[in-house]
Design a protein that fits this description.
Structural class of chain A: mainly alpha
Number of strands of chain B: 2
Order of helices and strands of chain B: HHEEHHHHHHHHHHH
Number of helices of chain B: 13
Number of domains of chain A: 2
CATH class of the largest domain in chain A: Mainly Alpha
Number of domains of chain B: 1
Number of helices of chain A: 15
CATH superfamily of chain B: MetI-like
Helix content of chain A: over 70%
Number of strands of chain A: 0
Largest interface: A-B, 110 and 101 residues
Strand content of chain B: under 5%
CATH superfamily of the largest domain in chain A: MetI-like
Oligomer: heterodimer
Largest sheet of chain B: 2 strands, antiparallel
Strand order of the largest sheet of chain B: 1-2
CATH topology of the largest domain in chain A: MetI-like fold
Largest sheet of chain A: none
Order of helices and strands of chain A: HHHHHHHHHHHHHHH
CATH topology of chain B: MetI-like fold
Strand content of chain A: under 5%
Shape of chain B: globular
Distance between the termini of chain B: 18 Å
Chain lengths: ~300, ~300
């Protein structure tokens, strides 16, 4: 009985009654245990990032020291300046912005209306096609596209990369938007249609303004997945058109094996994505779980 | 499986949206064209190419099913399938267990929950290549921080990804770190939708916390766990970036999964015909796994 009471008091909303010393001690113990569990489950996530940061701020001697040096003393930005000075980091960064940006914008242009159409047609089968597209390994798109781009002379161009990244961005945008439009109330649209509006004007002036939160989620998810993609850039890009992840792997690992610059480059690649996620934490959760539950 | 639920609501709203079907179809047309060009066309082209003995830069010879029969006896390919299943099994089960546990923790109210949850979900969004580079350095047998941590708790150093037997479990470690948050979020969504009444009445009947979890929470969140399992399985079978960056399928071919074998065939040897046959088989495997899990999902739905 006692255990039930104390157990419910940790989860119940307001246990405001007087308690004896023993149940208080028990509750304190539970809290410590719970805090420990939280620490255990969260620490790997944060520690890997901190170690990444630590590596990027130390000189090479400290990075290769054993036992490892954890806190950079003094921290140095030399690794970052070296990465930018010895590689076309700015160029690669720009390539990534162009490729992911264009692929996301194009996906929005075709994917938002499509999501709306699918939601109103109740065309669940279309979504299964998109799910299958998500299931297909990225490499299997690459072989035919590589062959075609070879034929068209498009290999090593940013155009080829943008086209290929549509494989990632279009399914995500359609998927998120179809799910979002389905949650919107139909009464307003029905009223607009009864008043003689066309499907297009109803979409443009009634549904679209309401769908802004869904569009934000779709945009950010599409951009992140496109930004994080490695293999398209690694296969299709030339020296000058590499995206950041491909550049970090190809250029840095083969031409310089030093850990500091490598960690600095890794941070440069992943920081924009992490910032995006931190700012839209809640929406990402909603977007991903909504997509997950529907899958 | 989709035809029934899709047909019902339209029927309940006699013809209102259906009359305008053509206009709605038109809205989906641009996306369909894009999907046809970058997704459907590659599929068809892949199937076509898989019937040829074709290296890029040389003349293609029609071999019919030759590439496929070649795969059946291809030792390296068969081993790649085994590696893929081994990797996938571990990379699905552990994130599911840990993710569910984490979801139960984050479902409770405690100070700093929002911030800690944000931190916990960071790995999921981080660029896989960047993360893989850091793990490569952490796995280093001499200077790596992981062996130092082992020594702190009195364990002998490990070879990690440099050992043929440990390479796949080590890669799974990265996968667990990376994708447990996604499972957590999906299960957390399930927990958020739980009704409160069964708990109240069960508590009145004197049920323990474990009984509450086992008989109320678990059955109710089971469909969400299955969804997470589907997504996790698809992603684990397809895993490429981390394996490619950290071990390149090595040492030897100890961690060569289907995807890595495929990459080598296609873009190191330019053996396009053979690689296309691998793609078709690979997709068949993914489809079979997904259908199997969806079947399980359907059953858990009925059970719940």
């Amino acid at each position: 009985m006692a255990s039930v009471a104390s157990a419910s008091s940790t989860t119940a909303l307001s246990p405001r009654r007087r308690t004896t010393g023993r149940t208080r001690a028990r509750r304190w113990l539970r809290r410590v245990g719970f805090g420990f569990a939280v620490a255990v489950i969260v620490s790997p996530a944060i520690l890997v990032f901190l170690w990444m940061l630590s590596l990027s701020l130390k000189n090479e001697i400290d990075n290769l020291a054993y036992p490892p040096v954890f806190i950079p003393a003094p921290p140095t930005l030399a690794n970052y300046t070296q990465v930018f000075a010895e590689n076309a980091m700015g160029r690669y960064f720009l390539n990534s912005v162009i490729v992911s940006g264009c692929a996301t914008l194009l996906a929005l242009a075709v994917g938002v209306p499509a999501g709306y159409g699918i939601a109103r047609l109740q065309a669940a089968r279309t979504l299964i096609l998109i799910l299958i597209a998500r299931m297909t390994p990225a490499l299997s798109f690459l072989i035919p596209l590589f062959t075609v781009f070879q034929f068209l002379g498009l290999n090593n161009t940013l155009t080829a990369l943008v086209i290929t990244h549509l494989v990632i961005t279009v399914p995500i945008v359609v998927y998120v938007m179809a799910g979002y439009f389905e949650t919107l109330p139909r009464e307003l649209e029905e009223a607009a249609l009864i008043d003689g509006g066309s499907v297009w004007t109803t979409f443009r002036y009634v549904a679209l303004p309401l769908a802004r939160p869904g569009i934000v989620v779709g945009t950010i998810l599409a951009f992140i997945f496109s930004w994080n993609n490695f293999v398209f850039g690694a296969v299709l890009a030339g020296r000058a058109t590499r995206t950041l992840p491909a550049a970090v792997y190809n250029v840095l690992t083969f031409e310089q094996l030093a850990w500091g610059p490598l960690a600095a480059a890794a941070i440069i690649v992943t920081l924009p994505v992490l910032l995006l996620t931190v700012f839209i934490q809640k929406e990402i959760v909603v977007g991903l779980t909504a997509g997950g539950v529907k899958a | 499986m989709s035809a029934l639920p899709a047909a019902l609501p339209v029927a309940s709203r006699p013809g209102f949206f259906r009359r305008r079907q053509r206009s709605y179809r038109l809205l989906t047309l641009p996306a369909l064209l894009v999907v046809a060009a970058v997704i459907v066309f590659p599929w068809l082209f892949t199937m076509y190419m898989s019937a040829f003995d074709w290296k890029i830069g040389s003349v293609a010879h029609f071999v019919g099913l030759g590439n496929y029969t070649g795969l059946v006896t291809n030792q390296r390919f068969l081993e790649a399938i085994a590696h893929t299943f081994y990797f996938t099994a571990l990379a699905v089960v552990f994130p599911l267990l840990l993710g569910t546990l984490a979801a139960l923790i984050f479902h409770r109210n405690f100070r700093g929950r929002g911030v800690l949850r944000a931190i916990f979900t960071m790995p999921m969004m981080a660029t896989p290549v960047a993360v893989a580079l850091v793990w490569t350095m952490m796995f280093h047998p001499q200077q790596g921080v992981l062996n130092y941590l082992l020594s702190l708790v009195g364990l002998p150093p490990s070879l990690w990804v440099y050992s043929p037997t440990l390479v796949i479990p080590s890669l799974v470690l990265v996968e667990i770190w990376h994708w447990t948050p996604l499972v957590m979020l999906i299960v957390l969504g399930g927990l958020a939708a739980l009704p409160t009444e069964p708990y109240e009445s069960a508590r009145l009947d004197g049920a323990t916390e474990w009984q509450l979890f086992r008989h109320i929470t678990l059955p109710l969140i089971a469909p969400f766990i299955v969804v997470a399992a589907v997504i996790r399985t698809i992603d684990a079978v397809k895993a490429f970036d981390t394996i490619y960056v950290i071990s390149q399928g090595g040492p030897g071919t100890a961690s060569e999964t289907i995807n890595l074998y495929l990459y080598l065939q296609a873009f190191a040897f330019y053996n396009v015909g053979n690689a296309s046959a691998v793609v078709v088989v690979f997709f068949g495997i993914i489809l079979a796994l997904a259908l199997l899990l969806l079947h399980v999902r359907q059953r858990t739905k009925w059970a719940a």
